[in-house]
Amino acid sequence: xxxGMSQPTEPSDQEPSTSSSADDPAGRTAAAALPSDSRxxxxxxxxxxxxxxWRPVRPEELxxxxxxxxxxPSEPQDNPKLIRQRRQELExxxxxxxxxxxxxxxxxxxxxxxxxxxxxxxxLTEAVRIFPxxxxxxxxxxxxxxxxxxxxxxxxxxLAGRLKTTEVERxxxxxxxxxxxxxxxxxxxxxxxxxxxxxxxxxxxxxxIDSEQHDKAIQVIDELVExxxxxxxxxxxxxxxxxxxxxxxxxxxxxxxxxxxxxxxGPLPIRFxxxxxxxxxxxxxxxxxxxxxxxxxxxxxxxxxxxxxxxAKKKHAN
Length: 318
Prior knowledge:
Blueprint: H1 42-45, H2 80-96, H3 101-113, H4 117-130, H5 135-162, H6 166-193, H7 199-210, H8 214-221, H9 231-244, H10 248-259, H11 268-285, H12 288-317
Helix pairs in contact: 2-3, 3-4, 4-5, 5-6, 6-7, 7-8, 7-9, 8-9, 9-10, 9-11, 10-11, 11-12
Protein backbone atom coordinates (compact mmCIF):
# COMPACT_ATOMS: atom_id res chain seq x y z
CA UNK A 1 0.00 0.00 0.00
CA UNK A 2 1.29 3.46 -0.91
CA UNK A 3 2.07 5.46 2.16
CA GLY A 4 0.42 8.57 2.17
CA MET A 5 -4.80 13.34 0.57
CA SER A 6 -4.87 9.43 -2.78
CA GLN A 7 -6.24 12.67 -0.74
CA PRO A 8 -6.98 7.92 -2.50
CA THR A 9 -4.61 6.32 -1.01
CA GLU A 10 -4.96 9.37 1.15
CA PRO A 11 -2.83 11.98 2.73
CA SER A 12 -3.47 11.24 6.27
CA ASP A 13 -2.35 7.68 5.72
CA GLN A 14 -5.53 6.34 7.20
CA GLU A 15 -8.39 4.49 5.63
CA PRO A 16 -11.50 6.66 5.12
CA SER A 17 -13.36 7.22 8.34
CA THR A 18 -16.98 6.30 8.82
CA SER A 19 -17.59 8.84 11.56
CA SER A 20 -20.75 10.92 11.55
CA SER A 21 -20.92 14.12 9.53
CA ALA A 22 -23.81 15.52 11.52
CA ASP A 23 -21.55 18.18 12.98
CA ASP A 24 -20.31 19.34 9.58
CA PRO A 25 -20.45 23.15 9.74
CA ALA A 26 -21.75 23.45 6.21
CA GLY A 27 -24.36 20.70 6.24
CA ARG A 28 -24.97 18.18 3.44
CA THR A 29 -22.35 17.44 0.84
CA ALA A 30 -23.16 17.57 -2.84
CA ALA A 31 -23.30 13.79 -2.80
CA ALA A 32 -26.10 13.93 -0.27
CA ALA A 33 -28.20 15.87 -2.76
CA LEU A 34 -28.03 13.14 -5.38
CA PRO A 35 -30.96 10.85 -6.08
CA SER A 36 -30.97 7.84 -3.77
CA ASP A 37 -29.73 5.45 -6.45
CA SER A 38 -26.80 7.72 -7.19
CA ARG A 39 -25.65 8.49 -3.68
CA UNK A 40 -22.48 7.02 -2.23
CA UNK A 41 -22.72 4.53 0.58
CA UNK A 42 -23.63 5.76 4.06
CA UNK A 43 -20.05 5.22 5.18
CA UNK A 44 -18.68 7.31 2.33
CA UNK A 45 -21.20 10.09 2.93
CA UNK A 46 -20.22 10.22 6.60
CA UNK A 47 -16.56 10.67 5.81
CA UNK A 48 -15.39 13.88 7.55
CA UNK A 49 -13.05 14.41 4.61
CA UNK A 50 -16.15 15.47 2.67
CA UNK A 51 -15.86 18.75 4.54
CA UNK A 52 -18.15 21.59 3.59
CA UNK A 53 -21.42 21.59 1.69
CA TRP A 54 -21.31 21.08 -2.10
CA ARG A 55 -17.69 20.04 -2.05
CA PRO A 56 -16.57 19.34 -5.64
CA VAL A 57 -12.95 18.69 -4.66
CA ARG A 58 -11.91 16.17 -2.08
CA PRO A 59 -8.93 16.87 0.15
CA GLU A 60 -6.99 14.11 -1.58
CA GLU A 61 -6.72 16.40 -4.57
CA LEU A 62 -4.61 18.63 -2.41
CA UNK A 63 -2.50 16.15 -0.55
CA UNK A 64 0.10 14.16 -2.42
CA UNK A 65 -0.71 15.92 -5.70
CA UNK A 66 2.19 17.45 -7.62
CA UNK A 67 4.52 15.56 -5.32
CA UNK A 68 8.19 16.57 -5.80
CA UNK A 69 10.09 13.87 -7.65
CA UNK A 70 12.50 13.31 -4.78
CA UNK A 71 9.82 13.33 -2.08
CA UNK A 72 8.83 9.67 -2.46
CA PRO A 73 9.95 7.84 0.69
CA SER A 74 11.11 4.27 0.75
CA GLU A 75 8.30 1.78 1.21
CA PRO A 76 8.63 0.03 4.57
CA GLN A 77 8.18 -3.71 4.65
CA ASP A 78 4.80 -5.06 5.77
CA ASN A 79 6.13 -7.15 8.65
CA PRO A 80 5.21 -5.18 11.82
CA LYS A 81 8.11 -6.60 13.78
CA LEU A 82 10.63 -5.66 11.10
CA ILE A 83 9.07 -2.22 10.72
CA ARG A 84 9.32 -1.60 14.46
CA GLN A 85 12.93 -2.81 14.49
CA ARG A 86 13.84 -0.60 11.54
CA ARG A 87 12.16 2.40 13.18
CA GLN A 88 14.24 1.94 16.32
CA GLU A 89 17.42 1.58 14.27
CA LEU A 90 16.71 4.80 12.39
CA GLU A 91 15.97 6.76 15.57
CA UNK A 92 19.32 5.67 17.03
CA UNK A 93 21.13 6.28 13.73
CA UNK A 94 19.84 9.84 13.41
CA UNK A 95 21.04 10.74 16.89
CA UNK A 96 24.60 9.95 15.81
CA UNK A 97 24.24 11.01 12.17
CA UNK A 98 21.69 13.86 12.03
CA UNK A 99 22.53 14.81 8.43
CA UNK A 100 21.32 11.59 6.83
CA UNK A 101 18.43 12.92 4.76
CA UNK A 102 17.37 9.50 3.46
CA UNK A 103 17.08 8.24 7.03
CA UNK A 104 14.73 11.12 7.88
CA UNK A 105 12.56 10.28 4.89
CA UNK A 106 12.46 6.58 5.67
CA UNK A 107 11.66 7.14 9.35
CA UNK A 108 8.85 9.57 8.50
CA UNK A 109 7.46 7.00 6.03
CA UNK A 110 7.43 4.36 8.75
CA UNK A 111 5.54 6.63 11.13
CA UNK A 112 2.98 7.33 8.42
CA UNK A 113 2.67 3.59 7.83
CA UNK A 114 1.95 3.19 11.54
CA UNK A 115 -0.73 5.94 11.46
CA UNK A 116 1.42 8.19 13.62
CA UNK A 117 1.50 11.47 11.67
CA UNK A 118 2.42 13.41 14.81
CA UNK A 119 5.73 11.52 14.97
CA UNK A 120 6.23 11.94 11.22
CA UNK A 121 5.73 15.67 11.75
CA UNK A 122 8.36 15.67 14.53
CA UNK A 123 10.91 13.89 12.34
CA LEU A 124 10.29 16.07 9.31
CA THR A 125 10.36 19.29 11.34
CA GLU A 126 13.89 18.40 12.39
CA ALA A 127 14.80 17.45 8.80
CA VAL A 128 13.56 20.80 7.48
CA ARG A 129 15.52 22.61 10.19
CA ILE A 130 18.71 20.90 9.02
CA PHE A 131 17.92 21.11 5.28
CA PRO A 132 15.90 24.36 4.97
CA UNK A 133 16.46 24.63 1.20
CA UNK A 134 15.05 21.20 0.39
CA UNK A 135 11.54 21.85 -0.90
CA UNK A 136 10.63 18.16 -1.05
CA UNK A 137 11.20 17.80 2.70
CA UNK A 138 9.07 20.90 3.30
CA UNK A 139 6.37 19.35 1.13
CA UNK A 140 6.49 16.14 3.22
CA UNK A 141 6.26 18.19 6.42
CA UNK A 142 3.14 19.90 5.10
CA UNK A 143 1.69 16.48 4.37
CA UNK A 144 2.37 15.37 7.92
CA UNK A 145 0.72 18.48 9.37
CA UNK A 146 -2.38 17.91 7.28
CA UNK A 147 -2.42 14.23 8.15
CA UNK A 148 -2.21 14.94 11.87
CA UNK A 149 -5.00 17.53 11.71
CA UNK A 150 -7.26 15.19 9.74
CA UNK A 151 -6.50 12.35 12.14
CA UNK A 152 -7.59 14.49 15.09
CA UNK A 153 -10.75 15.56 13.25
CA UNK A 154 -11.69 11.94 12.62
CA UNK A 155 -10.98 10.86 16.16
CA UNK A 156 -13.18 13.62 17.57
CA UNK A 157 -15.88 12.90 14.95
CA UNK A 158 -15.95 9.28 16.09
CA LEU A 159 -16.24 10.42 19.70
CA ALA A 160 -18.98 12.91 18.85
CA GLY A 161 -20.94 10.06 17.28
CA ARG A 162 -21.01 8.30 20.64
CA LEU A 163 -21.08 11.13 23.17
CA LYS A 164 -23.24 14.25 23.11
CA THR A 165 -21.62 16.53 25.66
CA THR A 166 -20.70 20.20 25.69
CA GLU A 167 -17.03 19.34 26.00
CA VAL A 168 -17.11 17.02 22.98
CA GLU A 169 -19.00 19.64 20.94
CA ARG A 170 -16.38 22.22 21.84
CA UNK A 171 -13.57 19.85 20.85
CA UNK A 172 -15.40 19.03 17.61
CA UNK A 173 -15.53 22.72 16.73
CA UNK A 174 -11.85 23.15 17.53
CA UNK A 175 -10.73 20.15 15.47
CA UNK A 176 -12.93 21.18 12.53
CA UNK A 177 -11.44 24.67 12.57
CA UNK A 178 -7.93 23.28 12.84
CA UNK A 179 -8.51 21.06 9.79
CA UNK A 180 -9.73 24.07 7.82
CA UNK A 181 -6.85 26.30 8.90
CA UNK A 182 -4.22 23.65 8.17
CA UNK A 183 -5.55 23.41 4.59
CA UNK A 184 -5.49 27.20 4.31
CA UNK A 185 -1.93 27.31 5.61
CA UNK A 186 -0.66 24.63 3.22
CA UNK A 187 -2.53 25.95 0.17
CA UNK A 188 -1.25 29.48 0.77
CA UNK A 189 2.32 28.22 1.15
CA UNK A 190 2.22 26.03 -1.96
CA UNK A 191 0.58 28.71 -4.08
CA UNK A 192 3.21 31.21 -2.93
CA UNK A 193 5.89 28.78 -4.14
CA UNK A 194 4.07 27.91 -7.37
CA UNK A 195 1.09 30.07 -8.45
CA UNK A 196 0.39 27.73 -11.38
CA UNK A 197 -1.14 25.13 -9.02
CA UNK A 198 -4.62 26.50 -9.66
CA UNK A 199 -6.40 23.38 -8.40
CA UNK A 200 -5.27 24.36 -4.90
CA UNK A 201 -7.48 27.46 -5.10
CA UNK A 202 -10.59 25.29 -5.04
CA UNK A 203 -9.30 23.49 -1.97
CA UNK A 204 -8.39 26.83 -0.40
CA UNK A 205 -11.89 28.18 -1.10
CA UNK A 206 -13.47 25.10 0.47
CA UNK A 207 -11.32 25.51 3.56
CA UNK A 208 -12.40 29.16 3.84
CA ILE A 209 -16.02 28.03 3.56
CA ASP A 210 -15.49 25.41 6.27
CA SER A 211 -14.08 28.16 8.51
CA GLU A 212 -17.05 30.42 7.62
CA GLN A 213 -14.87 33.00 5.86
CA HIS A 214 -17.16 33.34 2.86
CA ASP A 215 -15.84 36.69 1.63
CA LYS A 216 -12.32 35.29 1.40
CA ALA A 217 -13.64 32.17 -0.33
CA ILE A 218 -15.30 34.33 -3.00
CA GLN A 219 -12.07 36.23 -3.60
CA VAL A 220 -10.28 32.95 -4.25
CA ILE A 221 -13.10 31.54 -6.39
CA ASP A 222 -13.25 34.65 -8.61
CA GLU A 223 -9.73 33.86 -9.77
CA LEU A 224 -10.93 30.51 -11.16
CA VAL A 225 -14.21 31.17 -12.93
CA GLU A 226 -12.46 32.08 -16.19
CA UNK A 227 -10.83 28.65 -16.41
CA UNK A 228 -13.14 26.08 -18.00
CA UNK A 229 -11.54 23.24 -16.03
CA UNK A 230 -12.59 24.78 -12.72
CA UNK A 231 -15.50 27.08 -13.53
CA UNK A 232 -18.44 24.71 -12.75
CA UNK A 233 -17.08 23.91 -9.29
CA UNK A 234 -16.06 27.51 -8.73
CA UNK A 235 -19.50 28.89 -9.63
CA UNK A 236 -21.17 26.31 -7.39
CA UNK A 237 -19.00 27.28 -4.43
CA UNK A 238 -19.56 30.97 -5.16
CA UNK A 239 -23.31 30.44 -5.22
CA UNK A 240 -23.16 28.67 -1.86
CA UNK A 241 -21.07 31.47 -0.36
CA UNK A 242 -23.45 34.16 -1.64
CA UNK A 243 -26.44 32.30 -0.22
CA UNK A 244 -24.69 32.19 3.16
CA UNK A 245 -24.15 35.94 2.91
CA UNK A 246 -27.84 36.53 2.09
CA UNK A 247 -27.16 37.70 -1.48
CA UNK A 248 -29.81 35.56 -3.16
CA UNK A 249 -29.95 37.26 -6.58
CA UNK A 250 -26.18 37.11 -7.08
CA UNK A 251 -26.17 33.54 -5.76
CA UNK A 252 -28.75 32.41 -8.30
CA UNK A 253 -26.68 33.90 -11.13
CA UNK A 254 -23.63 31.91 -10.00
CA UNK A 255 -25.68 28.74 -9.56
CA UNK A 256 -27.14 29.08 -13.06
CA UNK A 257 -23.58 29.27 -14.39
CA UNK A 258 -22.79 26.03 -12.56
CA UNK A 259 -25.96 24.15 -13.48
CA UNK A 260 -27.23 25.48 -16.80
CA UNK A 261 -24.34 26.97 -18.76
CA UNK A 262 -24.06 25.40 -22.21
CA UNK A 263 -20.63 26.72 -23.15
CA UNK A 264 -19.00 24.73 -20.32
CA UNK A 265 -21.12 21.79 -19.18
CA GLY A 266 -20.25 20.80 -15.65
CA PRO A 267 -20.14 17.27 -14.20
CA LEU A 268 -23.55 15.79 -13.39
CA PRO A 269 -23.18 15.96 -9.57
CA ILE A 270 -22.19 19.63 -9.78
CA ARG A 271 -25.12 20.45 -12.06
CA PHE A 272 -27.52 18.54 -9.83
CA UNK A 273 -26.29 20.31 -6.69
CA UNK A 274 -26.56 23.72 -8.36
CA UNK A 275 -30.07 23.07 -9.69
CA UNK A 276 -31.17 21.72 -6.32
CA UNK A 277 -30.04 24.95 -4.67
CA UNK A 278 -31.71 26.99 -7.41
CA UNK A 279 -35.00 25.19 -6.80
CA UNK A 280 -34.76 25.70 -3.04
CA UNK A 281 -33.94 29.39 -3.46
CA UNK A 282 -36.65 30.05 -6.05
CA UNK A 283 -39.22 28.33 -3.82
CA UNK A 284 -38.13 30.35 -0.81
CA UNK A 285 -38.40 33.59 -2.80
CA UNK A 286 -41.81 32.67 -4.27
CA UNK A 287 -40.58 32.64 -7.90
CA UNK A 288 -43.10 30.07 -9.13
CA UNK A 289 -42.45 30.21 -12.89
CA UNK A 290 -38.69 30.22 -12.36
CA UNK A 291 -39.05 27.30 -9.96
CA UNK A 292 -40.87 25.22 -12.58
CA UNK A 293 -38.12 25.96 -15.09
CA UNK A 294 -35.42 24.80 -12.68
CA UNK A 295 -37.43 21.72 -11.69
CA UNK A 296 -37.61 20.58 -15.32
CA UNK A 297 -33.85 20.84 -15.71
CA UNK A 298 -33.33 19.16 -12.34
CA UNK A 299 -35.50 16.19 -13.38
CA UNK A 300 -33.45 15.73 -16.56
CA UNK A 301 -30.15 15.81 -14.67
CA UNK A 302 -31.52 13.43 -12.05
CA UNK A 303 -32.49 10.94 -14.76
CA UNK A 304 -29.00 11.22 -16.27
CA UNK A 305 -27.46 10.61 -12.85
CA UNK A 306 -29.52 7.46 -12.34
CA UNK A 307 -28.54 6.18 -15.79
CA UNK A 308 -24.90 6.98 -15.14
CA UNK A 309 -25.02 5.22 -11.78
CA UNK A 310 -26.65 2.13 -13.31
CA UNK A 311 -24.07 2.02 -16.10
CA ALA A 312 -21.25 2.35 -13.58
CA LYS A 313 -22.65 -0.48 -11.46
CA LYS A 314 -23.02 -2.69 -14.52
CA LYS A 315 -19.46 -1.95 -15.59
CA HIS A 316 -18.19 -2.70 -12.10
CA ALA A 317 -20.13 -5.98 -11.99
CA ASN A 318 -18.53 -7.07 -15.24
